[in-house]
Design goal:
Blueprint lengths: L2 E6 L11 H14 L1 E2 L3 E4 L5 E3 L1 H9 L4 E7 L6 E5 L8 H10 L8 E7 L2 E4 L9 E2 L5
Parallel strand pairs: 3-5
Antiparallel strand pairs: 1-5, 2-9, 3-4, 6-7, 7-8
Helix pairs in contact: 1-2
Amino acid sequence: MNIFAIIDISRLKEHEEVDLKHLKKLKKKIESDGVLKTPIAVDMLSDVIIDGHHRFVSLKELGYKKVPVVFIDYFASEIIIQSWRDGMKVTKDMVIQAGLTGKKLHPKTTKNMIRINGELKHISTLEKKINVRLKRLK
């Protein structure tokens, strides 16, 4: 079960650093669009960001106080963690620990996937388009 909400941005905890080039482009895009098109995937128990670090940092740097999220049960068996980096092993516990301690992993360390009807898809599949106007996030 996934729950959509708009929450205080200060609740969220990052587990991974961002790529500064991508951040700069995305921040400009969000600002020019005037909307956030996709919520951020967040573990429902810890408030650790699972997917959407660049969107989160963009909103934070632009001075927004609220953020749209989709809360997920990160420890559900259908959610699988992999790494974008060859040969690197990452666990869900490592992700949560990084978020709770502030000792962030390098950009593109975690690749969170979900098994839907036997097919493995990226976790962003759960982040349905929302198009929330930035004015709502002040």
